[in-house]
Write a structure and sequence with these properties.
The chain is built from 23 helices and six strands. By secondary structure, the chain is mainly alpha-helical. The chain has three domains: about 150 residues, Alpha Horseshoe (MgtE N-terminal fold); about 100 residues, CBS-domain (Roll); about 170 residues, SLC41 divalent cation transporters, integral membrane domain (Tetracycline Repressor, domain 2), CATH 1.10.357.20. α16 links the parallel β4 and β5. α20 runs parallel beside α22 and α22 packs antiparallel against α23.
Length: about 475
Amino acid sequence: MPESQKTADELKDESLTFTLSDKEINEIAQAVQSQDSDTVHAVLEDLSPADTAELVAKFKDDDRNELLVMYGEAIDPEVFTEMDPELRRSTLSAMPPDQIASLISELDSDDALELIRPLDDRLQKEIIQRLSAKSRVALEEGLSFPEDSAGRLMQREIVAVPLFWTAGKTIDYLRAAGEDLPEEFFDIFVIDPAYHVRGQVPLNRLIRSKRAEKLEDLAETDVTTIPATMDQEEVAHLFRRDDLVSAPVIDENGRLIGVITIDDIVDVIDEEAQEDIMKMAGVERSDLYRAVLSTTGTRFRWLFINLLTAILASIVISFFDATIEQIVALAVLMPIVASMGGNAGTQALTVAVRALATKELSGANRMRVIWKETLVGTLNGAAFAVITGLVAALWFSNPMLGIVIAAAMIINLFAAGLCGAAIPILLDRYGSDPAVSSTVFLTTVTDVVGFFAFLGLAAILLL
C-alpha cells in the first residue's frame, strides 16, 4: 500500500461514525496547507460526498478556497448537492462558469437545477451557455417553474415505455439502455402515445414476471400524479400520506415530464421542518454561513417587532405603577405569571403549527383542537394556581396575595391555551405563515393578559 494511502486511512476513525472528528478535519487542513497532494487526493477518494461536504463546511475560508482551487477536479460533484444552500451558493459564485458547467454536466437534472437555482441570473446564463443542448433545455425548463414547486424538484431522467410492451421486451430495453438510464429509479411508467401516464410497474414486480406478460396487466393503474406547479410541501405530504417511493410529474396537459423520488422528498421534509423551526425564532437556516451584516439585518427586523411587543407589555405595567409602589411583592411575582403563560402558549402553538404543516388540521377539526388546548391550558392553570398561590402566601405571609396570583395564573394559562392554538390557525386561514408570525402575537397576548390580570386583581383585592 502506498505511503500516501496509509496516511489517508489513518485520517479515518476505525469506529463507525456519521461525522468527521475535529482531529481528522485539522489533519486534512494541514495536508491542504502543506500542499500534500497525495494525502489530499487519497482522502477525497476515501470520503463519501456527505463527509466531504461536511469537511468543506468546517474548513476555514482560506483552506476551503485552496481545497477547491487546487483539488477541485478530485471533488465528486455530488459533494455540492450535500452542502448547506448558502455555503453552496457562495462557493459556486466564486468559481468560474466553466468549472460549474463541468460539475453540473455530471449530475442528474434535479441536482443540477438545485446547484444553479440560487445563483444570480448573469452567472446562470453563462453556465447554461456552456452545457450541452439537452442539459441546457432541461435547466431552462426547470427554471421556468415556480420556486419550491414540483417542477423544480423533479428529475427529468425517467423510464417510460409503451402500454403494449411485455415484461421481457422491457427488461431487454433496460439492459440495452445501460448508462442512458437514470442512476437510480424504482418504477417504470407505462404511457400511451400522447405520453399520458396509464400506470406504473415497480421494478420488483417486473423482474418477478414472466417474459410474455404484458405491462398493461402488470401495471398499477391507481397512480398518484404530481402537477409540475404543485408546491414541494404538498408533494411531501402526498408521499408521506400514500407511502410513495416515486411519483410521475405531469404538465398542464397531463403529459409525463419527470419523476420525483423519495430521496428528494426526505430532503424537502428536512428543509421544511428546519425552516419552520428557525422562522419561529426569527432566524434563517443559512445564517451560519451568511455575512455578518446580512445576518444582523435579518434578525434586527424580528428583534424590532419584539421590542414593540415588550413596550406594549411595559405600558400595561405602567397603568399599575401606584399599586406596585405600595405592594413591592407584585414586582417580584409578576414575571412568574407572564413566563408560565408564555411557556404554556408555546406548547399549544407548537402542536397547532405542526398539525397545520402535516395537514392534520383543517376546518373539520380545528374547533376541537382549539377547545382541547384551551381546556388543557385551563387545567394546568388551575394546578399551578394552587402551587404558586401557596408559595406566594407563605413567602409573603399574605393569603390574599396567594389568591391573586392563583386567579391570574388560571386566567393567563386559559388565554395561552386558547390563543396558542387559535393564532396559527387564523394566520394560516388568512394566508400568512403561522411559523413566522405566531410567536410574536402569542407573546404579546400572554404578557399583556398576564400582567393585566395579576396587577388588575391586585389593585382590586389588595388595596
